[in-house]
Specification:
By secondary structure, this protein is of the alpha/beta class. It is built from 11 helices and 20 strands. It has helices spanning about 10, 15-35, 40-45, 70-75, 110-130, 150-160, 170-180, 190-205, 225-235, 350-360, 395-410; strands at about 90-95, 105-110, 135-140, 160-165, 185-190, 215-220, 240-245, 250-255, 265, 270-275, 285, 290-300, 310-320, 330-335, 340-345, 345-350, 365-375, 385-390, 415-420, 435-440.
Length: about 450
């Protein structure tokens, strides 16, 4: 593999040298937060932590976690950006918003310095995902509040690639523009990549591979790392699919998957300090190969809206063995969100894992599915109700239902009640796919 980096010094730095830089930045940032953020001043005091208790990263565990709901309440009680905002409004150059998929959206402001940091982190992540100066990126993701919009534009231009801002809801324009401009790279959610494949087959009478994309860069939801979904996209488009992971409260894209396809590399080396914790106990876990837990972020270089020990709710698996691309950072796969996890008789079940199984049954299924919940989770009494779309190729619906239920039980260790519905029954999404439908009020 050809070894290429956006910032070779930082992306190939040894752990010891990087840790020294992180220590220095952490001390500076914690001083800043202690002095500028009323939210953290109050929070640390309530937890009995004084500034002198924190001498370095080895004391980070003494600080309390920050929850998303706390930031939401902070903004409701102290608008516009909350008491955790540590920069005056006249220093803020842009304001983004979270998607609000798990509650009321929160706003995130950035200063000129924050903008520079975001652009660097995102450029490293995109470069790891094979974005190059010679590429013409068809951007089929939202361009408004979404942190995967304008910040990706900034990072793409920073790399030197051509950015084509189409956004969502314009598949006909994606097809036309791709052909006219020779777009070779599609940036979108995994849901939209599947949607576009179905769209061009039905509306344009062509195969997705005829669009000519050489690279699919996906993110904003689990899917690009789900084996069956990744396989489907790579077969549909006949090109490499690489995924990324970010967080609206931390940075737009923090992890990027290199061509080795062995997980997403951490690309915010000196800007974010990550921790891995047990999502139930909050205990810090070692980032050893194969370790699984929840990602926690402490920002090391943020002026506006800094966060300390922020619980992302992203459930990940760690890969720490050396990568052939030459990057020295750890890698991850995102299993799903801990707040989406279901618990069936003591067994943890993630919607993305169910979708992986359903997609693996293509072409008997379309790959589209929906979990139906009669009562609030995470505890669910089996069998778990799952709607699955079947295709016209199916000859025996009873056999398909039985096979799906058996494989779900065999692979994911839970009992399902699969309801087969005709192709086209379930909704399609151009942004993030909804895998759970709540039937209760």
């Amino acid at each position: 593999m050809k070894k290429e980096f956006f910032n070779e010094k930082m992306e190939t730095m040894s752990f010891e040298e990087l840790h020294s830089i992180q220590e220095e930045k952490f001390i500076k940032q914690i001083d800043y937060v202690w002095g500028k953020s009323p939210f953290y001043q109050k929070k640390f005091k309530e937890h009995g932590v004084e500034r002198g208790d924190i001498r370095g990263l080895e004391d980070l565990h003494k600080l309390p976690f920050t929850e998303k709901d706390e930031l939401r309440r902070s903004q409701e009680e102290d608008p516009p950006l909350g008491s955790h905002c540590a920069a005056p409004m006249d220093n803020i150059i842009r304001i983004h918003s979270s998607s609000g998929t798990t509650g009321i959206p929160t706003f995130v402001g950035i200063t000129r310095h924050d903008h520079k940091v975001w652009t660097e982190i995102t450029a490293r992540s995109l470069f790891a995902k094979s974005v190059r100066p010679t590429d013409v990126m068809i951007h089929a993701v939202g361009l408004t509040f979404f942190v995967g919009g304008l910040p990706v534009k900034d990072a793409t231009e920073h790399i030197g690639a051509a950015f084509v801002p189409i956004g969502t809801g314009a598949s006909d324009r994606v097809v036309m523009t791709t052909k006219r401009l020779g777009g070779n790279l599609l940036h979108c959610t995994p849901s939209y990549a599947q949607y576009l494949a179905d769209y061009v087959r039905k509306k344009q009478n062509m195969e997705p591979s005829e669009l000519g994309f050489k690279k699919l860069v996906v993110g904003a939801e689990p899917g690009g790392g789900v084996p069956a979904i990744k396989k489907r996209l790579q077969e549909d488009y006949q090109c490499i699919v690489s995924e990324g992971l970010g967080n609206s409260d931390a940075a737009p894209i923090i992890f990027g998957e290199c061509p080795a396809q062995q997980g997403m590399h951490f690309c915010a080396q000196e800007y974010i300090f990550p921790e891995l914790i047990d999502p139930s106990s909050g205990d810090v876990l070692e980032m050893t190969d194969g370790a699984e837990g929840e990602l926690v972020y402490t920002l090391l270089d943020r002026e506006c809206c800094p966060v300390v020990r922020f619980r992302t709710r992203d459930r990940i698996t760690i890969f720490s063995d050396p990568c052939e691309c030459g990057r020295t950072s750890f890698r991850i796969r995102c299993i799903g969100r801990t707040d989406d996890m279901l618990l069936l008789l003591g067994v943890n079940v993630f919607p993305s894992a169910i979708k992986d199984v359903v997609t693996s049954f293509r072409p008997l299924t379309t790959g589209d599915m929906l979990i139906l919940l009669d009562e609030p989770g995470p505890k669910v009494q089996p069998p778990l109700k799952v709607q699955v779309e079947y295709t016209q190729t199916v000859k025996d619906l009873t056999a398909l239902k039985k096979d799906l239920e058996n494989i779900l039980r065999e692979k994911l260790v839970f009992r399902a009640d699969v309801e087969l519905v005709p192709e086209g029954t379930l909704p399609r999404y151009e942004m993030k796919t909804k895998l759970i439908k709540k039937l209760f009020k």
